[in-house]
Amino acid sequence: MVCLQSFESVGMEANKIKLDTLALSFAAVFFVETVTNIILSISSFSPLIWIGFARIMQTCLILFIIFLRGGGLSSIGLEPSILISGVWRGVVWSFGFGVAAALVGAGLFTADFQPLGLIKTTLPVKKVEIILFFVVGGVVGPVAEEMFFRGIIYGFLKRWGIIPAIGISTLLFTLSHYFISGAFITQMLGGIVFALAYELEGCLLVPILIHILGNLAIFTLSLQL
């Protein structure tokens, strides 16, 4: 319950993401993405290795910017005192989200619509590549994305209200994935859930865990399809 008890103070901190912190984070993410795309065009190594390295670099750079200009971990809902509770709340949210998704999927299935087509992910063929995919797409990627889209963007936009912050941060999150995978509905719903979880709990670890467990569940299902 520590996470809920700390919500007010953490939420106030989340409003303190300043324009320079946002701009520097955008610049860092854009720079790493640009360099990674250049490397991918000339490298013979697995793209997943470079993508994973890029997400780690983006996470480290955002943390550096936060410590340098953004007011520390509390400004993005990662205050050490609430992390243990954040793990528990993240698991609870993930379970609830999974049950809701299963019920919706069952409803769509009875209506002669194949819901698994909405979440099916194309996985690599080689076992080593599959493992890399699970690590990068299931763990490393969600950490970097939640830190950027919820910790930085949502934290900056919240000064204008919860609804604009959820709407704009979710739109940016959805578009960033749509150009890669073409999945719009699932990414949009996911973005809304992640933002709501962050808002209600005040702890960034909650949407991080929902994102990680959700991705791993989708990838595991995709292995069976």
Residues in helix, %: over 70%
Q: How many domains make up the coordinates?
A: 1
Report how far the terminal alpha carbons are from each other. Answer: 39 Å
**What is the average of the pLDDT values?**
88
Rg over CA atoms:
18 Å
Poorly predicted segments? 1-14
Report on this model:
This protein has 225 residues and is an all-alpha fold. It has one domain (2-224). 80% of the residues lie in helices and 0% in strands. The protein contains 10 helices and no strands. The model is unreliable at 1-14 (pLDDT under 50).
Short description:
The chain has helices at residues 2-5, 7-14, 19-42, 47-70, 83-110, 116-119, 127-157, 162-181, 185-201, 205-224.
Itemize the secondary structure elements and their pairings.
Layout (H helix, E strand, L loop, with lengths): L1 H4 L1 H8 L4 H24 L4 H24 L12 H28 L5 H4 L7 H31 L4 H20 L3 H17 L3 H20 L1
Helix pairs in contact: 3-4, 3-7, 4-7, 5-10, 7-8, 7-10, 8-9, 9-10
Fill in the keyword field for this structure.
10 helices, 0% strand, mainly alpha, 225 residues, disordered N terminus
